[in-house]
Design a protein that fits this description.
377 residues; Alpha-Beta Plaits; 2 domains; 4-stranded antiparallel β-sheet; 11 helices; 12% strand
Amino acid sequence: MEFIFAFLEKISTTSGIKAVYIHLVLKTLGAIAGTYIVWIILKRILVSFEKKTQKSNFLKINIEIISVVRKALFCGLILVTGTYLIRLFDVLLLEKIFHAIVIILLASPAKDFLLILLGYFEKNIIDKTKTKVDDIIFDLINKFSGAIIYATAIVLALDILGVNVMPFIAGAGVAGIAIGFAAKDTLSNLIAGVLLIIDRPFEVGDRIEVWSAPAGSASWGDVIDIGLRATKIKTTDNIVIIIPNNEIMKRDIVNYTILSTNIRVRINIGIAYDANIEKAKALILNVAESVAWISKTPAPKVVVRNFGESSVDLQLRVWIDDARKRMDTISHVTDKIKTAFDEHGIEIPYPKRDITISYRSASELETQQHASNDKTS
């Protein structure tokens, strides 16, 4: 140590610079060199650890996690070295600014770590659940997590600088109220979207009724996307209908596949009053049993619903395994029943009118006209 002090005194005498400044320069260079050496050692440890864990079946650390740890350690070294140098030169004003900058820099690895953590949970949760709403929830969290972390980092940085953030928060609250009144419809759709995700009246892939379909087009379709503002439904005509979530929450939602894909289909059939009802029932059941996708259990059945103006109203009730074949079932069965009725003489009634035409001679018409004139006078 005496040799080092003597060497520094000699340099001070030769250069004319005070020994104190030389000490500061050497400490600065030593701190920077020490930080660099520590960083090189940490990098090699991380690289070695990464190679070892990649070969292990029990421990497999994602490369992204190593990258996040590397960023965090680098920011930590900058924080320690920078704080030491600032205190060495006794510039306390810069210390707060420096700490505020480091906090904002730390937001980046914090955000990356949170996204990796969310990705891990997303992979393990979504693979184990049957619902697809989890995809939407994690997608929303991924979108807003970065903004929340950076906003928190900025607030902490301002607090370290001694800036009172309460006026900004209060101003943001007032601005939020004003924006809420200006965009109440949009906010209403956003709130409805959150409620749809929570209540889950339907999920992506479900088949539901579409009340706002164009006239003459299919009135039901599959849900292909549930957004915060609107829901997209693709009808069986391959038309995508985008419905605001607020409108969906006001309506009755008819979901054909929420419990299972098995549904019961009802097909109305009318026969004439003089037709053989038992024979008609047997023909209808034969047609239903010949359709491959109609379930055998529960078995198809035919019931008499009521007596119409010109027909006995029957109804075929069948179960199908795929709700998406509902219209195909109605069309196919109706077509086959018509053919079977025609072959076996079962009449399908239709409206009829009897017209009676009477012929009168000219003398009869003249007598009738005189009679009406006498009554009038």
